[in-house]
Amino acid sequence: MNFETLKTALPDYAKDLKLNLGSLSNETSLTDQQKWGTFLACAFAIGEPTTIRALIGETEGKLTPEAVKAAKAAASIMGMNNVYYRFTHLVHNEVYRTTPAKLRMQVIGAPGVEKPDFELWCMAVSAVNGCGMCMDSHEGVLRHAGFTTEQIQASVRIGAVVNAVARTLAAEAALA
C-alpha cells in the first residue's frame, strides 16, 4: 500500500483530502526526512490501520530505519506527554504545573535523528492531539533551531490532513 492507494481508499466526498495529500507530498519547505517523518509520526499517533500501512509503504526508501523508529517514538512519547501536559495546563490548580511529571522521556534527548526533525514531528503530533502547552514548547525549540513559520505550519498542515484522512477512513470502516 502507498500514497496513491490511500487516496483511492478515500470516498468521493473527501476529494479535498485527496488533493491536500497530493500537494503536501510535494511540500518543498521541509526536507524529505522532515516531511515524510511528519506524515509517519502523525499516522502512528492516530493509529488508523489503512493510513499507517499506506504511509509505511510510501516512506519505504525515503526514511532510514532510524528515522522510522524516531517517527514512531515521537508519536508514542507525545501520546503520553500531550495528555499529561494538557491536564496540567487545563486544570485550575497550579500545583500540577510546578510538580515534577515523574514520567520517563529519554527519547526526547536522544531520538536517533537530528533533534530539530524529531521536534518537528512532536509538534505535528501535539497539534493532532490538541496540547497547546506542548505546541508552545515545540514551537519555541523549532524557532530557536532556525525553523520558519512556513516550515512549522507545513508540519501542522500534514498532521491536520493525516488526521482527517484517518478519521474519514475509520468512519467509513465503521459503516462497512
Overview of the molecule:
With 176 residues, the protein is mainly alpha-helical. α1 (3-9) packs antiparallel against α4 (49-59) and α8 packs across α10. It has ten helices and no strands. The model has no long low-confidence stretch (mean pLDDT 94). The chain has a single domain (3-175), classed as Up-down Bundle (AhpD-like).
- Binned, the helix content reads over 70%
So, the CATH homologous superfamily?
A: AhpD-like
Helix-strand makeup class = mainly alpha
Q: End-to-end span in angstroms?
A: 20 Å
Please report the total strand number as a whole number. 0
Keywords:
10 helices; AhpD-like; 176 residues; mainly alpha
Short description:
By secondary structure, the protein is mostly helical. It has ten helices and no strands. The two termini are 20 Å apart.
Topology:
Elements lengths: L2 H7 L5 H11 L6 H15 L2 H11 L5 H26 L4 H4 L7 H4 L5 H15 L2 H13 L4 H27 L1
Helix pairs in contact: 1-4, 2-10, 3-4, 3-5, 3-8, 3-10, 5-8, 8-9, 8-10
